[in-house]
Amino acid sequence: MAELVITGAEVGGRLVEVLVSDGAIAEIGVRVDAPGGSTRLDGAGGALLPGLHDHHVHLLAAAAALESVALGPPHVVDRDQLALALEAASRRTPWGAWVRGVGYHESVAGRIDRHDLDALLADRPLRVQHRSGAEWILNTAALDLLALEGVTHEGIERERNGAPTGRLFRMDAWLGERIGRSTPDLAEVGRAAARAGVTGFTDATPARGPDDLAPLADPGSGLRQRITVMTAPGADVECPAPLSLGPVKVLLDDVALLALDELSAIVAAAHGRGRAVAVHCVTRVQSVLAVSALEAAGARPGDRIEHGSVIPAELIGTLCSLGTTVVTNPGFVEARGDRYALEVEAEDREDLYRCASLERGGVGVAAGTDAPFGPPDPWVAIRAAVGRTTASGVPLGPAERLAPMAALSLFLGSAADPLMPRRVAVGAPADLCLLGLPLEAALRSPSSEHVAVTLVGGEVVSDNR
Ligand SMILES: [Zn+2]
């Protein structure tokens, strides 16, 4: 592989040149000894950071979500959630592309038509499938694009003046022909993450068999990042190259909650096979159960609590002594915080997505986006970890605010140990995120807009300049 020299890069507060050779950092200095013919990348004084690692993401679901958004219960139950879901879908859908919603039910916001949809999303084509599968509801931008005014089809419902209501019945084939069909596109998930400086993912969907991992291991997937995967308890899944094997993922569900001895047995079985566990905890009762099970089974380095959405203060000391890492999702503070204010009981609100109190209590914290369920841009999570404000600007758990560098560091740990910081250092893989400005300036307003170039193994995977 050819050598690459990154010039004028800010590393550890000073401007240096960085020589990348064979996918790794070979030399760092005021002037490096670059062989003739090396490619040069002008850092322009911007900070050179380790690439961000998203410690909790669901890649296949994120790919599917790029093309459709769940707009019915249990994901969306009222008009506010419908608006939030459409807004989020619109943000993650490439410009000009259709927003596609599925699973709509009138319990959400009544029997909607084009005008209702226009009020929620007017500036791009939107189609929403009713849960029955028999009906699509389109907004005006979509109707215009399909030139529906001039189409005769018995499935088109019309107002008395002949204008389409936006409701189309049993017209899937017709729509498929007009719009074109597509399959979930992992490459776009990877590209969007690369634009945000992400060079690695830990996929938190528990793989049950080889088929679950094949799409991620496929060299044709278009994903350029390094990927660590989790497996389901008891699944004897061989981890295909180039994927790395992460912990055993244990899902908890309040409706069918495991008994303490059942969960302890799962934890012990994973540990017995040399694997750490990652226990999904989004409620108070799940956190209590998970911590009790780890106490009963004995903790192992690498054990994780995923989400840690509600961690009662009295668990912090135990988490610290167990050495369990919390992989949290501060992005939800921004994305869902306004809903939490309405829906989460007051006693739980203080405990939502803790960061600073965990760190003060000696508990290691890292973060993931939980895309597609949370905002896929890790900088949204970084910003939320610093500001602790909801989308509408309301503070949520201000005592949990992290300093900007600590918030960024939530994404700078390694896949194998999210608390082990990766560094821009000789010998490290050249998985790098070059910002367009110095670190101090970038941290004043954390945003993926500051990301200039992203490299994985020394190869440019996104050039946003
Ligand atoms: Zn998740």
List the topology elements.
Elements: E1 4-11, E2 14-21, E3 24-29, E4 39-42, E5 48-50, E6 52-57, H1 59-67, E7 69-70, H2 79-92, E8 99-104, H3 106-109, H4 114-120, E9 126-130, E10 135-138, H5 140-145, E11 156-158, E12 164-169, H6 172-179, H7 186-195, E13 198-207, H8 210-217, E14 226-231, E15 244-250, H9 260-272, E16 277-281, H10 284-297, E17 304-307, H11 316-322, E18 325-328, H12 331-343, H13 346-349, H14 356-360, E19 365-367, H15 378-387, H16 404-409, E20 432-435, H17 439-444, E21 451-456, E22 459-463
Parallel strand pairs: 1-4, 6-13, 7-8, 8-9, 13-14, 14-15, 15-16, 16-17, 17-18, 18-19
Antiparallel strand pairs: 1-2, 2-3, 5-20, 9-10, 10-12, 11-12, 20-21, 21-22
Helix pairs in contact: 1-7, 9-10, 12-15
Describe the structure.
With 465 residues, the protein is an alpha/beta fold. The chain folds into three domains: 95 residues, Urease, subunit C, domain 1 (Roll), CATH 2.30.40.10; 93 residues, Diaminopimelate Epimerase, Chain A, domain 1 (Roll), CATH 3.10.310; 236 residues, TIM Barrel (Alpha-Beta Barrel), CATH 3.20.20.140. The protein is 31% helix and 25% strand. It contains 17 helices and 22 strands. The longest helix has 14 residues. The two termini are 24 Å apart. The site of zinc ion has 4 residues, from loops.
